[in-house]
Every structure is written in C-alpha cells, then in structure tokens.
Amino acid sequence: MSTNQQELARRLKARHIMMIALGGAIGAGMFKGSSTSISLAGPGVVFAYLLGGLILFFVMQGLAEMAVRRPQARTFRELIEPILGRFAGHVVGWMYWLDWVLVMAAETAASAMFLQYWFPNIPLWLLSLIVSIVITVINLFQVNVYGETEYWLAGIKIAVLILFILLGGTLLFTGYGVHPPAGFHNVTAQGGFFPHGIQGVAASMLIVMFSFGGTEMIGMTLGETEHPEQVIPRAARGVIARILLFYILPILVIVSLVPWNQLGTNESPFVTVFQAVGIPYVGSIMNFVMLTAVLSATNTGMYAASRMLYTQALEGQAPRIFARLSNRKVPVTALLASTSFLYIGVVIAFFAKGHTFDYLMVIPGYSVLTVWIFLAWAHIRSRKEGFEAKGYYVKGFPYTSWFALLSLIVILVGIIITSPVAGTLVSLLAYLLVLVSYWFTRRSRREKRDTLEKTFVP
C-alpha cells in the first residue's frame, strides 16, 4: 500500500464522465419504473420530466462552477464543506456513502433475479455472489478500467433507447399490422394531456426526481478526471440534455403508441410496446437490457461509495486506514469496506427470496435529495464579494440556484407526506446515526488536539 499522500490518478476522460452520469441516471427505473409515473400523471408526465430536468440542470450548473473555482477538490463533498462547514461535509459524505452501499446491495440482488431468467436452477444468493465478485475485481483495477466498463454498460442502455425512439417514432406515422398510424392522438384522447390535473404531475415528481438520481456522479469524479476545469462544465451541460432526450422521447413514444391507461404498473411499458408491435424475444431482450442497467448501477455504486469513504477518511471523519491507496492509486481499503455491503446483499438475497430491492431502497431517495439541496445551497453561498465573472460561471445566478433549492425542498416535503411512515422513520434513524457520529469525530479531534498541545508545552 502507498501512503495517503499520493493523489488519485487522473485517468477518466470526457467520454467516461458523460457515460458514468448517464449510466447512473438511466437505470432499471427508466425501463420498468416509468410505468408508475405514467399511471400517476398520464401523458403529462412528460412535463414532469422536463421540470425535473430543469431543476437538476440548475444544480449541475452550480456544481460545475464550484468545481472550476476549486480544482483541487476530489469529490463534490470537498466543494460543499469549505462553504457550508464540516458538519455539512460530514452529513453529505456519510449519507451519500450510505445511499450507494444500499443501492449496490439492492441492485446486486436485482441482477441475480434477471440472471435467474436464463439460469432458473441456480439460487439467487449464488448468482448475487458471482456478480459481487466480478464487480469487486473490476473496481480493483485502475480507474480507467472502471470508466471503460461503465462506458459500455451505459452504451447498451442508450443504444436500446435510441432504437426504441427510432422504431416507435416511425410506427407513429406508418402504423403496424392492422393498426393505423396513431400519430399523437392517444396523447390527448384519454382524458387530455393532464388527465389527473396538476395533482397527478405533482405526485409523479417524486418518482421522476428519484429517476434522475446519479446525475450528481459528475461531482464524484473530480479527482480522477483529466482537465476537470474543462470537462466538468461541458459534462454538466451535456448530460442533462441527453438525460432529458433519453427520458422524454421514449415516454412520449410510449403514451402516443399505447393509451396511457392501458399500461400496467407491473410490466415494463417498453415490453408492452414491443409486444404490441410483434417484435420476437421481447422478454429476453428487455431482461438483458435491465440486467445491464442494474450491473451499471452496481458498478457506479462501487466507485461512488469507495471514493466518498476515501474522502471522508482524508478529512478525518472516517478511520485513516480508508485513505490508503494501492499501487494503482485505487482506494482499495475503502473499496473493500464498501464491498462488504454487496455480500450483506447476498445474505439478504438468501433469506428475502427476491424481495431485497424493496427492503433496501428506503434511505437512498432521501439521501440523494439531501445532496442536491446541499449543492444548491452551497452554490448560493459560494459567491462572495470580488467574484470575477470570467471563465465558466452561471449567468442566471442567484435565481437558478434559488429555484432549484426551493423546488427540492418542496419535493422533500412531498416525499415526507406521501411516503410510508416506516420508511421515513428508518431514514430518520440513519440521519440520527450520522449526527451522532459527527459528535464522536468532533470529540476525537478535540482530544487529539489537546494531547498535542500538552505534549509540546515546555
């Protein structure tokens, strides 16, 4: 092992950053969970995705500006702490780490379920174990190996979405089988564009915002990106445009081809459309796509969790051993500690019999919203007297960041009101544990300082 004085290697290229963010935001929720958001808002869900994308665009703009002003930052945690203080850095760091280790465990179990489609005689826990080992090995190599793996995993999802957009868009105007061209008749035929009114759009916003989770991964790559001052602003702008493109166009195609009230919530709307068109092997195709989606999320989670734990250790808010780097400049100790949650997922998969995803996905929704709120607030506080508007900077400041912050707070309140009480209590317990841990780390730092002062007093 090397000492913690070594820096992370800057081996991630612009194309890696773009695909990492896209891969984090376009997951299995897009291919399967979009049916729930459509059922809540009808065709008006397109507006919900536009609004959600606008909010996240303003957040990412602020992140990019702060990254340009602080090029030595390794993760977005080191953008937040100098502005909002150690407490904010501690909370963001640990909640984001907890977010991804839970997502990793859940997605690993989900990947085992998709693999069991082809290997029905192999138990879920064994398939989860195999996936866990493979993902761990990939992340032990140099960071560009992770970047390249994520690039191709995300590429498969995006290729399917492009194919779906082209195929579905063509069928809208040519028809299929005995069905005449649908055009955009179905968008307004079943109760109008907003069949459930503004309340339906508001209800869908909760799911829509969670769907965008992972966009902030741009801020986790700061310490390993080549020329971050150039790449990060470009990636922040480009990734939101692409996410909106790959969310809005497919959903617009879906609600145009098939009446929104005929889409079930238990089946992927993509499967419904493909089956209606008559494409063979739809089940196998979509199973493969969703498998790549959850593997991509697991791979991203491994990267995010290990880098955040590494940064926490450097800042003295986690044991110092997690700040050690391997000869490949990978925080291997932090990585292996975070990996342990994958194997906890294996154990849960053994007992939960396929319900692990539901059991674990309680805290991450609150965690990622917390990160976005802190990023927006940090950007508002980052502008000081004497700020020079040169290079990359947000031209709509402070209105854009205030709009994002207030919108996210409203969404957070909506989540608290509409979420099951048990899930909110579990999340509250996680926050309390993080707060208690901050008190212990603060006390430990004070005791070390007092010891040093006594040592050097003549």
List keywords for this structure.
disordered N terminus; mainly alpha; 458 residues
What does this structure look like?
Helices cover 72% and strands 0% of the residues. The protein has a single domain, classed as Amino acid/polyamine transporter I (Up-down Bundle), CATH 1.20.1740.10. It is globular, with a radius of gyration of 23 Å. The protein has helices at residues 14-25, 28-41, 45-69, 77-84, 86-115, 124-140, 143-174, 185-189, 197-211, 228-257, 269-277, 282-314, 332-352, 356-360, 363-382, 399-418, 421-456. It is an all-alpha fold. It holds the Pfam family AA_permease.
Helical residues, percent: over 70%
Mean pLDDT: 81
Stated plainly, the CATH topology is called Amino acid/polyamine transporter I
Q: Provide the CATH top-level class.
A: Mainly Alpha
N-to-C CA distance: 37 Å
In total, the number of strands is 0
Q: Give the class from helix and strand content and strand pairing.
A: mainly alpha
Number of helices: 17
User: Could you tell me the radius of gyration in angstroms?
Assistant: 23 Å
Task: Give start-end ranges of low-pLDDT stretches.
Answer: 1-5, 452-458
Provide the domain count.
1
What general outline do the C-alpha atoms trace? globular
Largest sheet: none
Query: Could you name the CATH homologous superfamily?
Result: Amino acid/polyamine transporter I
Strand content: under 5%
Q: What is the N-to-C order of secondary-structure elements (H for helix, E for strand)? A: HHHHHHHHHHHHHHHHH
